[in-house]
Amino acid sequence: MIRVLVTASRLRLAKLLEKGLQLQGWNTCVATTYNAVIEKVKHTPTDLVLVDADFFQAETLPLLAVLQQQRLPFVVIAKDYQVGGHDLRQATAAEDIFIKPFSTKHLITVLSQKITLEEY
After folding, report:
1. pTM of the full predicted structure?
2. pLDDT tens across the length of the chain (120 residues)
3. Contact 26, 18 (CB under 8 A)
4. What are the beta bridge partners of residue 30?
5. Domains in the chain, please, with CATH?
6. What share of the chain is helix, strand, coil (3-state, %, to 5)?
7. Which of 21, 24, 74, 98 is positioned for an S-S bond with 49, CB 3.0–4.6 A?
8. Measured distance CA(102)–CA(52) in Å, rounded
9. Residue 51, φ and ψ in degrees, nearest 5
């Protein structure tokens, strides 16, 4: 079963994303702080992390660096490419960034493809 860690700036968004992922048969959990995300990725089996850059702001780039160091695939969601005074495209590929609002169906398709590619 695929395990996805969800972070979101609004609980409503987190619940919407969780519901969509669970409908795919995926297991989800939510982390609400930077430290909670770090703890989850270090101690909980995780296949992919969905990072809400608007929530983490200036901590987004350090968080992405930790995920890259852990070799965990991730997708970033944000209102804009500029978050916390930084351009997200400097930390990750543009195709791994979803600008809000986005299609949940398209996001899930990309997540599925990303996980499939990581398995090979």
Report:
1. 0.87
2. 889 999 876 777 788 888 888 888 899 998 888 899 999 998 989 999 999 998 889 899 999 999 999 899 999 999 999 998 899 999 999 889 999 888 888 888 888 888 777 664
3. no
4. 6
5. 3-118 (3.40.50.2300)
6. 50, 20, 30
7. 74
8. 13
9. -105, 125
List all residues 6 or more positions away from 89 whose beta carbon is below 8 Å from its beta carbon: 81, 97
Structure tokens that stand for 13 in this block: 């968004």
**Is the separation of the CB atoms in 86 and 92 below 8 Å?**
no
CB 70 within 8 A of CB 47: no
Residue positions counted in the chain = 120
